[in-house]
Inverse folding.
């Protein structure tokens, strides 16, 4: 006969799950929300996000409309209680980053793109809810028109005021811009016939195709008013496809910043190969596998990065690295051994360049943010700057 010992004593704790860790992290973060009255709303918001992530990890393909509505409602409640949507967005980013790091990147890489997409939707819904509750609603009706257009909606009555086509211009400031100054600048653009609004961490301008005003002029106007040039990505679409143009411009902007380009104007033509590759997660994974040994070796990583920056000119690369040509040749041989591709062949240079960009962008996506002022050592945590320095 088996005797069960039910006397008090130490018991093995229940295994801690990833969701337990996320909940604990969210609880800690919510304690830093100010004012204190906004903390319950923050906990509700973070809880909604964690429940969404749990379902995605269980295999759901995305986030449902009811879930998104609850996130927007939580965002409105947070702002109504005096909480900061910027703080909440930062906290949600940290929760998602932890999720990707401990449960997705290594254990379920096939879910990475879905998790990141859902994370972006959660953030967007938070900001939408916050905007709906904020004092600017109604005082900035044009902002709402732009924000709804890039989300794929056409506000009632707006279709009669829209042009047939637009240049969709996405601007990422290289320095922080105070909200009142941004509002003044957007008013100036509106006076020129350009619709504009803040969307997530960027600014969207919709320039009518019939208006004699180029994206380059918009960037120059921005720089003249704020004293610093932004990163700018552009796409052209008919008025019924503004949302797809915004998504394309957002991808281009991610590529430009993650690959170390300085502020300037970028189009799809600047990243045709990288854009096509990064739309296919399986191809991205294969490219990352090629350069993974190089990324793990500081010397080889720096050498390949400098070679790419130098357009694979050995003399220029050796000078930039402060090494002898023979030392550079040895490192190039090491890179070829590690990757199977010679940096000095046409195909090898192309593959390695795209692979380095893919790894940098994938890392940015995992972190769910693009650095506001990237440096060579900050981008993607890999010290990689891609390609030529383009003129502005």
């Amino acid at each position: 006969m088996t005797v069960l010992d039910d006397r008090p004593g130490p018991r093995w704790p229940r295994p801690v799950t990833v969701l337990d860790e996320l909940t604990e992290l969210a609880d800690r973060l919510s304690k830093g929300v100010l004012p204190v009255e906004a903390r319950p709303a923050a906990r509700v918001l973070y809880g909604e996000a964690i429940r969404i992530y749990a379902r995605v990890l269980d295999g759901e393909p995305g986030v449902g409309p009811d879930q998104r509505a609850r996130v927007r409602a939580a965002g409105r409640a947070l702002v109504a209680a005096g909480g900061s949507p910027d703080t909440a967005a930062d906290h949600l980013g940290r929760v998602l980053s932890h999720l990707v790091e401990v449960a997705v990147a290594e254990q379920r890489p096939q879910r990475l793109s879905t998790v990141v997409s859902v994370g972006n939707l959660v953030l967007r819904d938070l900001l939408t809810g916050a905007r709906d509750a904020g004092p600017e609603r109604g005082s900035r009706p044009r902002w709402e028109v732009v924000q709804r257009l890039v989300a794929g909606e056409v506000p009632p009555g707006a279709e009669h005021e829209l042009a047939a086509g637009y240049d969709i211009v996405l601007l990422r400031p290289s320095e922080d811009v105070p909200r009142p100054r941004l509002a003044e600048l957007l008013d100036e653009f509106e006076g020129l016939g350009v619709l504009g609004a803040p969307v997530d961490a960027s600014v969207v301008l919709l320039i009518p195709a019939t208006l004699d005003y180029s994206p380059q002029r918009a960037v120059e106007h921005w720089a003249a008013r704020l004293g610093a040039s932004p990163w700018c990505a552009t796409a052209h679409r008919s008025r019924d496809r503004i949302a797809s143009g915004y998504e394309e411009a957002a991808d281009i902007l991610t590529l430009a910043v993650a690959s170390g380009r300085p502020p300037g104007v970028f189009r799809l033509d600047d990243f045709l190969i990288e854009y096509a590759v990064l739309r296919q997660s399986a191809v991205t994974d294969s490219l990352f596998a090629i350069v993974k040994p190089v990324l793990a070796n500081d010397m080889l990583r720096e050498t390949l990065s400098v070679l790419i920056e130098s357009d694979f000119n050995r003399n220029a690369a050796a000078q930039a690295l402060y090494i002898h040509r023979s030392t550079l040749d040895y490192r190039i041989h090491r890179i070829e051994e590690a990757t199977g591709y010679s940096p000095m062949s046409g195909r090898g240079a192309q593959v390695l360049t795209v692979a380095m960009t893919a790894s940098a962008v994938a890392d940015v996506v995992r972190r769910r943010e693009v650095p506001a002022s990237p440096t060579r050592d900050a981008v993607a945590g890999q010290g990689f700057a891609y390609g030529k320095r383009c003129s502005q």
Remarks:
- The chain has three domains: 18-133, 141-268, 280-381.
